[in-house]
Amino acid sequence: MLATRALSLIGKRAISTSVCVRGGHGVAKVEDYTLPDLSADQKSLKEKEKGSWAALSNEEKIALYRISFKQSFAEMNQGSSEWKSVVGGIFFFVGFTGLVVLWQRKYVYGPVPHTFDPEYKEKELQRMLDMRINPVEGFSAKWDYENKQWKK
Amino acid sequence: MRDSHCGNMFRAVIRLSASGARSLARSRPCYSAPLASRCYSHGKVETDEEFDSRWVTYFSKPDIDAWELRKGMNTLIGYDLVPEPKILDSALRACRRLNDLASAIRILEAVKDKAGPHKDIYPYLIQELKPTLAELGISTPEELGIDKL
Question: Which stretches are transmembrane (chain A) (predicted)?
Fold first, then answer.
C-alpha cells in the first residue's frame, strides 16, 4: 500500500497496469506496442511509407525500421564481455578465500597432534613394515627387507 | 522422423529439433501426406499442406489489422519450424496492406534467425521470395546493412 503510493509519485503511468507492484513483469504496456511520438520528419516518412516502397531510399527504410524496432536482430543477439568479469570475480574471491584459509591456519588452529612429528612418523612406518602391511602388491611389497631400503 | 530432402529440391520447412515436438517437416511428392503412426493420444494429424494453407489464409485476410499481423508472426515464429515461402509471401503482402515496411524487414530477419545453424535455408527463402520482394519494394536486411553490427 505504501509502496503503491510512493511509486505513483515517480511514474505517470497508473500502477494498475502492473500485475503487482513488486513483480518483475506486468501486463502489456501500451508503450510496447504503439508507435512512439514521432517527429515531423518521421511523420512525413510514415506518409511516404503509404506509397511505393521502392521509392524509399535505403536510409529512409532504415529510419522506418528504427522507428518500430529499437535493435536489429544482430544488435539484439550480440554477446557481451560480461563473462570475463564473472570469471575474474570468481578467481578473485577464490583467491581471497585462500588467504582466509592461510590466516586461519596460522592464527586460529592450534598445533597438530604429536603423532605428526617426523620421529613419530618414522616409528609408524617401521611398525607398518614390521606388520608386513600389504606384502603382496602394496606397501610392504615395495620394501626390500634384505637391504633395508625401498625397492628400486 | 521425417526427412526433408527429395532429389535436389530443398524445402524450407525442416525439423529444427530432434525432440518429440511435433514435426512439421515438408513432405514432397515422394511421400504421401500424413504419417501413419504418431504417438498422439487422439485427434487428427494436420498435414503440412493444411498447416501452410491455414497460415497463408490467416495472413491473406484483406482487412487484417496490425495486432493480428503481430500476433500471427509471433505465433508462427514460436513454432519449431521455418515457415514456407508462401506463408512469408502472404505475411509480407499483409505488411504492404498495413503500410508497415519495418515489419516486413523484421520478418526476414526473424526467419533467418529461426533457421539457426542451417545456413542454407535463408538464401533459399530469399531466392523464392525475390519476385515478391522486388514487386513490393522490400529490401532485405543484408541490402540495408542491418544484418551486421
Answer: 85-103
Alpha-carbon distance B11 to B4, whole Å? 7
d(CA A42, CA A91): 50
Residues from chain A contacting residue B146 (CB–CB below 8 Å): 62, 65, 72, 74
Give A31-89 pLDDT, tens digit per residue. 777 888 899 999 999 999 999 999 999 999 999 999 999 999 999 999 999 999 999 99
Residue B102 and residue A52: Cβ atoms within 8 Å?
A: no
The runs of H, that is alpha helices, within A69-133 are 73-77, 82-107, 118-130
Which of A49, A66, A72 to probe the B interface (max B CBs under 10 A)? Answer: A72
Q: Which residues of B touch A64 (CB under 8 A)?
A: 101-102
Burial B105-141, CB ≥16 within 10 A → b, else e = bbbbbbbbebbeeeeebbebbbebbeebbeebbbbbb
Instruction: Report yes or no for ipTM above 0.90.
Output: no
Q: Is the pTM of this model over 0.80?
A: no
| A62 part of contact set with chain B, CB < 8 Å | yes
Give pLDDT tens digits for A25-40: 778 788 777 888 899 9
Q: Residue B149 is nearest to which of A50, A56, A78, comparing CB atoms?
A: A78
Cell of A110: 592450534
